[in-house]
């Protein structure tokens, strides 16, 4: 059985897409970011909790503050990227559940009244949404450079609050010169899929 999605779209989203390490100076607009979010917000999360929160780092001052918290190998490419997003998990996502889960508003207190439970759920489901976000960036014809090589606790103090846990930084833009490292190998299906 073949995939329904057009092969060109398959290439754009997966086969030809890779983490970008350089970018052109072409700006990424608020309209592009809005279009990306309007697409990826439909990706599933448990209880429709949607805990991902996105902080766009646009100003030179904010960029400078962010770069100080990145691993040395990530600093130059982040300083030069047209747009940088801090992707974080909102540990108080349950406050939105009466709106996001109108057929079961009691889920807010029934399942998520304790902070450690919320933190675990927020981390897992925001990570799912972060993956959707990266695919959405690709769908917009842009390249994404996701990174976790950073002082995430420092980023939290600098840009967020105690209720938001940073997961990763994503550089966004049109790929620049020599943007790609060689493609690394992937596991074959028989190495990953087991039938019981």
Verbal overview:
By secondary structure, the protein is an alpha+beta fold. The protein contains 9 helices and 4 strands, in the order ααβααβαααβαβα. The protein has helices spanning 7-15, 30-40, 60-67, 72-80, 97-100, 107-112, 115-139, 152-159, 189-192; strands at residues 52-57, 83-90, 143-147, 164-173. It has a 4-stranded antiparallel beta sheet with strand order 1-2-4-3. Helix 1 (7-15) packs across helix 7 (115-139) and helix 2 (30-40) packs across helix 7 (115-139). The longest helix is centred in the middle third of the chain and has 25 residues, at 115-139. It is globular and about 50 Å long. The two termini are 21 Å apart.
Notable characteristics:
single chain; 196 residues; alpha+beta; four-stranded antiparallel beta sheet; 9 helices; 4 strands
**Secondary-structure element pattern, one letter each:** HHEHHEHHHEHEH
Please bin the fraction of helical residues: 40-55%
- Strand % is 5-15%
The total of beta strands comes to 4
Q: Given the helix and strand composition, which structural class is it? A: alpha+beta
Described by strand count, sense and barrel closure, the largest sheet is:
4 strands, antiparallel
Spatial separation of the terminal alpha carbons: 21 Å
Rg for CA atoms = 18 Å
Shape: globular
The whole-number mean of residue pLDDT values reads 96
